[in-house]
Amino acid sequence: MKNKQYQLIIVLIIYYMDILNIMATMAVLWLHTSEYAFQYEPNNINWYVSLIIQVLFIWAVPIFFMISGANLFNYRNRYDTVTFFKKRIVRVLVPFFIWSFVWYAWNNFVLQQENWSIKGFINGMEYDTIQPIFWFFYFLIPIYISMPFLSVLATKDNKKVVEYIIVFYAIGMGIINYGYMLLRRTPNHMVNNVPLVLSTGIGIFFVGWYLHTFKMSKKVRYWLYFGTSMSIIFMILVTIILSGIRGETAREVYSVFSIGGFFIPLGIWVWVQKRFGETWQPSPNIAKLLRSLSGVSLGVYVIHKFLIVVIEHIFSLAPSSWLHLFVLPLVVWFLSVIIILILQKIPVVKRLLP
């Protein structure tokens, strides 16, 4: 009986993280179809709308990082370190190289932005200039490399140590580094020489593991909801004010590596965890659907920009239009999911999908 209860809890936890995964994937599309916010046009109401969308969905990638921390810091309970690295190479590293090459070819032959060469591809891979949204991988892969010792830290016995890392991350990355960004100053040597929680942003991975492992009280959840709400309001207002002063969109205000970027995903996480955790169990069909949609999330991430460019071109969609801001993300998500599900049926191709 005890083992059955344990298995049931594990299944339910997987469901709530599936929902977070799906939500984060859709949030990414809302971010990438509201980039009109980058063009500072204060006389156009749609600029304010696109800015609000940017802030509301800035939590997307941090949620992915948190899910990785929650799922992988305890990998030793499922398999050894060699198996862990094999799985990461197959599921992330190989697709990362393959899709970077696909994007490099697209940039050269379709968009005519690159000079085709092996050196150009290597430089693009090295400095993340092939597809900027792939910065996600440049954070994720070093964490995977560090996982053998990070997983030793992430245990219930080390709860206080993990709390220290999280608090230090929130203060260091969310306040100190964030302050430097807002002031447009280069962080000093002392700040730069604290790599564990500042340079790698590793704290957000520990946050995911911590929220996944320890149950939050009602009081803590409400404080996190409050922090999320205040962060959204702060980011919107300060972006508008600083943009007006500078005459350009102050994009760094709503950075994922800010105190607001820290609180917003926490509020989203604990709300979904509470709503779809122990008190909620989907029907078998819904459970299957959730697993399928969650399983295509990274694939959708790497291909959705293709669809955005193609649809913009075919329908001559202006980035500031309501269709671009509100309809395009839904259309692109639906088409991306269909494409990835089809590609997953092809034996050789499915190995190239993240």
UniProtKB/TrEMBL annotation:
<feature type="transmembrane region" description="Helical">
    <location>
        <begin position="133"/>
        <end position="154"/>
    </location>
</feature>
<keyword id="KW-1133">Transmembrane helix</keyword>
<dbReference type="InterPro" id="IPR002656">
    <property type="entry name" value="Acyl_transf_3_dom"/>
</dbReference>
<keyword id="KW-0812">Transmembrane</keyword>
<feature type="transmembrane region" description="Helical">
    <location>
        <begin position="193"/>
        <end position="211"/>
    </location>
</feature>
<dbReference type="Pfam" id="PF01757">
    <property type="entry name" value="Acyl_transf_3"/>
</dbReference>
<comment type="similarity">
    <text>Belongs to the acyltransferase 3 family.</text>
</comment>
<feature type="transmembrane region" description="Helical">
    <location>
        <begin position="223"/>
        <end position="247"/>
    </location>
</feature>
<feature type="transmembrane region" description="Helical">
    <location>
        <begin position="161"/>
        <end position="181"/>
    </location>
</feature>
<feature type="domain" description="Acyltransferase 3">
    <location>
        <begin position="14"/>
        <end position="340"/>
    </location>
</feature>
<feature type="transmembrane region" description="Helical">
    <location>
        <begin position="321"/>
        <end position="343"/>
    </location>
</feature>
<keyword id="KW-0472">Membrane</keyword>
<protein>
    <submittedName>
        <fullName>Surface polysaccharide O-acyltransferase, integral membrane enzyme</fullName>
    </submittedName>
</protein>
<feature type="transmembrane region" description="Helical">
    <location>
        <begin position="88"/>
        <end position="106"/>
    </location>
</feature>
<feature type="transmembrane region" description="Helical">
    <location>
        <begin position="45"/>
        <end position="67"/>
    </location>
</feature>
<keyword id="KW-1003">Cell membrane</keyword>
<feature type="transmembrane region" description="Helical">
    <location>
        <begin position="293"/>
        <end position="315"/>
    </location>
</feature>
<feature type="transmembrane region" description="Helical">
    <location>
        <begin position="253"/>
        <end position="272"/>
    </location>
</feature>
<feature type="transmembrane region" description="Helical">
    <location>
        <begin position="12"/>
        <end position="33"/>
    </location>
</feature>
